Amino acid sequence: MTGPEGQPIPLNGPVAVPPKDEGKPGSVLDAVEGGPLAGAVSGIVQGLTAKQKKISPRYFYDSAGSSLFERITQLPEYYLTRSENAVVERTVDAIVRQVAPQEVLELGTGSSKKIRQILDACSQTELPRYTAFDIDRGAVTTAVETIGQAYPGIDARGVVGDFEKHLSLLPQSPGRRLVVFFGSIIGNLDPWPRRRFLANVRTLLGPRDRFLLGVDLKKEPHVLEAAYNDAEGIIAEFNRNILNVVNRLVDANFDPGAFRHQAIWNEDDGRIEMYLIAETRQEILLGAGGVTITVEPGETIWTESSYKFTRRGAQGMLEEAKMRLDAWHTDTMFGLALAAPDGS
Ligand code: TRP
Known about the structure:
Elements: E1 28-30, H1 41-48, E2 53-54, H2 63-72, H3 79-99, E3 103-107, H4 113-121, E4 129-134, H5 137-150, E5 156-160, E6 177-181, H6 191-203, E7 210-216, H7 221-227, H8 234-250, E8 259-266, E9 271-278, E10 282-286, E11 291-295, E12 300-307, H9 311-320, E13 323-330, E14 334-341
Parallel strand pairs: 1-5, 2-12, 3-4, 3-6, 4-5, 6-7
Antiparallel strand pairs: 7-14, 8-9, 9-12, 10-11, 13-14
The protein binds tryptophan.
């Protein structure tokens, strides 16, 4: 596969290399030493010194960010989680019957609700291993503990890593693997990183393994914009919290209160765009980068995109990554794709 200028897209290396430490039931391991945010400074400084200032959404998820995100999933306007839960509930038995997973690998661990639906549908005498993978150590630890307590005897373990960089460091699966990527997190990746991510997921799959992917669907712009501009302002708080994380990581002095949140639908690119808009002129010292930046009143920092899909679009991106769409379930708001590796 090649990138925008024809250069090969680097994959994350062969998966066949077993990680140094396979872990054991109940363990939470770091994919890389120092955690996934080690070495974050240069990327953050680069984003904040660009013409359109940008901060990567991977920095949303400190413990405050993870708990604000939990509240987002319960907002009346934010239909995604409810829709996805309902679709999973309706279809999980058929999926589990078809795949009979011996490992359920969850990329981007949220609250464990959907995983519980999957594990409940599995044979309780032959529970699959549960592996939680997330950038937030707290989220991984909670998931491993919660699932470990709810299913006595289960082999639940966690890996702390960045799913854009560290998938190749995952321990090998004990057998048939179901990789799940819920919450339309795939929509938070731009097209090229998304292609690379899907190509990496493909390397995690043997012939009998499957990939279960949740995608939010294109719909009327006012519904989409309402979902990302909630009346209570929780998404605004979540968005501003990224500045707290950046302050800590690069020793900066952003005042989150001096920014307001905006989410707009970009029809041409098929995505919601989330910004922080400066209310006042500010000079921000990025201590760890040794630079000072200026933010003008009304200037935006782009923190995240949330792409929306169609069934055809989802099928197309899976096929491009050498997977085929095996089953498609939807409530018309949200889609759940079950994908199989090509040739299986
Ligand atoms: N992936 C989901 C989405 O795009 C959840 C999410 C990620 C989100 N970042 C967010 C929701 C920021 C609201 C705000 O909707």
